[in-house]
Amino acid sequence: MKTAFLFPGQGAQAIGMGADVARAFPPAAAVFQKANDILGFDLRRICLEGPADRLDTTTISQPAIFTASAAILEVIRTVPAAGDLKPDVAAGLSLGEYTALYAAGILRFDDALILVHKRGQAMQAAADATDGAMVSIIGLDEQKVNELCVEAREGGLLEPVNFNCPGQIVLSGAKAPCRRAEQLAPKYGAIKAVPLAVAGAFHTEMMAPAAETLKKALADTHIAEPAAVKTIANISAEYYKTAAEVKLGLAKQLTSPILWQKCMERLLADGIEDFYEIGPGRVLTGLMKRINRKAKVINLSTAESIKQLV
Questions:
Q1: Per-residue pLDDT tens digits for 139-159
Q2: At CB < 8 A and 24+ separation, what contacts does 283-287 make?
Q3: Which pLDDT belongs to residue 310?
């Protein structure tokens, strides 16, 4: 029976995430402390107590989600009650790909945390220098979304960038085309269009400066060659084969669409039977149920859910 570990991306953050896990399991508390020591500020306190406006910033939410996910992963790795659960494949949504690479032994914790912190800073800086937005379109297929983009673009930047599950595609680009897409979406049959509370136009060319910054950081980071645990790339729905591919994929991810639905369909086609979402929230659990309602997905986001693994 093949198993996949799935890790959430930006947007999964919530005040108190990981609090009950850190209280119940010393290995999780140790991960939060280690993150504090590496970053030089009290990330644990922001995760557990907020304030929300600070936790929700791109600069903080990215290391926060990574650390909260890694803390839960550490419990699964070290506590006998977790039943010695191990993955055959790891996957993460956008930011979550770093946690997946850490889970697969391709990135070390320290390196991954520093990278996601730099990634968040670089994306925030790129967002501040541009005028971008994102909007989630519910209820349209890829063809209709492309038609919507053609009409709403009017010479501006607007691209479908997150293919999350059937009927949920996120658009990203300049603010005016995003607003037009939101207004025009019902004309194409959309159930609704939801503006996202993000800093800018992620996964578009507006993030090119961030990608360059990240490329330099990746060049100075040790990345192990992929081995026993496979990791699937967001931008291609293919497994990483070399460390060089990982560096290229992580940098390119900032300006490329995230093919989450294709990634999950690939894992299902390759015989993965058990999926575990590890980290705050239930976003990936919900997406998987939309991709394949028969898929077995277990959400591990609380101390109680971990205890139920016994």
A1: 999 999 999 999 999 999 999
A2: 283/8, 283/9, 283/11, 283/12, 283/93, 284/6, 284/7, 284/8, 284/93, 284/96, 287/164, 287/165, 287/168, 287/260, 287/261
A3: 63
Phi and psi torsions of 300, nearest 5° = -115, 85
Instruction: Please state at what angle helix 208-219 crosses helix 243-253, rounded to 10 degrees.
Output: 160
Give the span between the Cα atoms of 141 and 13, in whole angstroms: 28
Active-site annotation holds for 256: no
Contact predicate 74/27, CB 8 Å: yes
Strand partners, 173: 133, 158
10 Å CB burial of residue 292 (0-12, 13-18, 19+) is middle
Tell me, what amino acid is at 209?
A: P
Spot the catalytic one: 94, 136, 172, 256.
94
From 69, 136, 172, 203, the catalytic residue:
203
CB 191 within 8 A of CB 179: no
The reply to whether 136 belongs to the active site is no
- From residue 114, alpha-carbon distances to 52, 133, 283 in Å are 22, 26, 25
* Phi, psi dihedrals of residue 149, rounded to the nearest 5°: -60, -40
DSSP secondary structure of 83-116: -S---SEEEESTTHHHHHHHHTTSS-HHHHHHHH
Other beta carbons less than 10 A from residue 165's beta carbon: 18
Residue 182: CB partners within 8 Å, gap ≥ 6?
Answer: 135, 193, 195
Cis peptide before 51 (omega within 30 of 0): yes
Write out pLDDT tens, residues 43-59.
999 999 999 999 999 99
Closest CA to 6 of 68, 72, 99: 99
Q: Tokens for 266?
A: 């690939």
| Cβ neighbour number for residue 275 with a 10 Å cutoff | 25
Is 195's pLDDT higher than 70?
yes
